[in-house]
Amino acid sequence: MTRQSIKDRLTQGGAGRTVLKLVIASIIVGAIFSFLGIGVREFWSGVFDNVKDVVGMLGESFGEIALTVLTYLLIGAGIVIPIWLVARLLSSRK
After folding, report:
1. For the chain, which residues make up each domain, given as ranges?
2. Is the entire prediction scored with pTM above 0.90?
3. Per-residue pLDDT, 40
4. I need a surface site. Which of 25, 52, 75, 93 has the fewest CB within 10 A?
């Protein structure tokens, strides 16, 4: 195969065009990361650490929200259920 036929195969059709774009993007991103001194391991480690922190914060927030809702439920039930019971007892006498 000559160089021209390889180029023609890569640039014709959707799959070849996609592969070529991915190769070019990989070279550009690799050059930028290399210039900044960031490796693949450091990049993904940072991403996963950030995701873990966000999930942790959401978990803490969810715990606070659940505790608040539970508190409201207990306070409301302490008022609503006795009133409902009295209303039910009074309506059953009729």
Report:
1. 3-92
2. no
3. 86
4. 93
